[in-house]
Amino acid sequence: FLDALSDADKLVRDAAILVLIKFYNESPKLINLDSIINKLDKNNPAITMSILQLIGDLWEMDSEEILSTLLKFIKFENEEIKKTVSNILVENYDKSPELVFNNLITIEDDSKFLSKGIISNTIINIARHHPYEIYERLIKSLDSENDFTRLNAINSLDGIIDDHIQKIDVGLLLNTFQREHVNEVKKNIIQLLSKVAKNSPQSFFAIINKLLDILKKQEAHLKVPLIKIIMILTEKNPDIIPLDPLLELFSDNDSFIRET
Q: pTM for this structure?
């Protein structure tokens, strides 16, 4: 049956998978996981996809080895394989939540300018089934020393923020922004703050002076999007913005800042 996993005919592969799963359910010791994993063929996406789905079904046989194998394919150039791996992780999250999250969150994502990558999307899809648990895990991940972890946490929070808009701690995000040294993470925190400003401006009432103080200390490329948050808040509730700090911006050396 193992040889049938490499058959060019999908019907043959599917039949072999059904038999192997039956064997596993009845006599787990008959199944050699390494022999199945060794059948993976990166040059043949169809066969790879079939075998990945099979090892996903065998998750409880050795979750760590199976997860390690799946993560080798999560950023594969083939989109179907990436989605297959992502779906397997979502389906098996309940069985090994710590294992899946802690390994997934540290991987460099493949996000593009206008779209999230497979890592963030996988976490967001897991959050649909576990909204509060994943939210708390992501908030804790903002303190990580790993740059990819913090970036993935912010990108994933951005994808689930609509379900947590009243709960998000703007002060915590500003503290994260202040100590952050990676520009991409900083930009994505600002993007997240902008969403909160549009949908829950009252979240900023207690920390507006802190926001203005942070704004003054930033470089121009970060000042502009922060000023736009102030503009959003001004439109929603003009009275919450103190005038003096804003007037100081008219003396900024950058003409674009003064215009904004």
A: 0.89
